[in-house]
Amino acid sequence: MRFCNQLYEYCEGERVTHFIRLPANAVLNRLIEPYLTRPVGRPPKSGIQIRLVDLRRQAKTWDRERRVVAKIEWHEGELFPRIGFIVINSKLPAGKVVKVYNGRCDVENRIKEGKTTLRWDKTSCRRFAANQARLLMGVLAYNLLHMLRQFYLMGEEVKRSMEWLIKRLIKVGAKVAYHGRRWQVHVASAFPLARYYRAVFG
User: Fold this and answer.
1) Do residues 85 and 20 lie in contact, with contact meaning Cβ atoms separated by under 8 Å?
2) Is the pTM of this model over 0.70?
3) How far separated are the first and last CA of the chain, in Å rounded?
4) 64-73 contact pairs (CB < 8 A, 24+)
5) In the predicted model, is pLDDT for residue 1 greater than 60?
6) % of the chain at pLDDT higher than 90
7) What is the rounded average pLDDT of the residues 85-112?
8) What per-residue string of b and e applies to 98-129 under the rule 16 or more CB within 10 Å gives b?
């Protein structure tokens, strides 16, 4: 808990917006008791009924009052609701808070993608500065590939992986020439993956 308090204070001191899961406790459970009645009416197609509650809470170890969003889910066929709490310093509506928090899964996927394809975790140098430089180069390469995938990959319905981009667009035999103010990449006329270049630059 002490680490969490330091994290809250650091983010607020540096004006960093945070969305952090808060473990349930007796006080929080008591605050949401009035909202634990199952909503009336037919549940949606997903079978999940959701209620969001905005709370103001100051724990004994906190130096100030903070905003907490409670998410209460009733799942079809389950007797008791599933409850989660998020402590935030954002002014976003509760619905957007939950959406941003749930989006963390995609961030974890991006980290995994960087580690498996660009070896972010390969920090075997003895000096910290060398490992830092290696990681920064990996992050820069990832950002360039991600930009290529997000903004320039045209004519492809499937979202391509980093490994796909590297194998089909980067690791190819080609001749690079510089003429005037333009770089040119020359590949063989019979290059079997030419269609992927057309998809990117077409």
Assistant:
1) no
2) no
3) 53
4) 66/8, 68/22, 68/28, 69/94, 69/97, 69/98, 70/28, 70/31, 70/32, 70/35, 71/98, 72/32, 72/35, 72/36, 73/48, 73/49
5) no
6) 24
7) 87
8) beebeeeeeeeeeeebbeebbebeeeeeeeee
The domain locations on the chain are 2-102, 107-201
pLDDT digits (tens, 9 = 90+) for 153-163: 655 666 778 88
Task: For residue 68, count CB atoms less than 10 angstroms from its CB and return exposed for 0-12, middle for 13-18, buried for 19 or more.
Answer: buried
Cα torsion at 34, 38, 39, 40 (round to 10°)? -120
- Mean pLDDT, to the nearest integer, of 161-183? 82
What confidence score (pLDDT) does residue 3 get?
62
Pairing type for strands 82-88 and 182-186 reads unpaired
Beta strands in the chain (DSSP E): 19-22, 48-57, 66-75, 82-88, 175-179, 182-186
DSSP state, 74? E
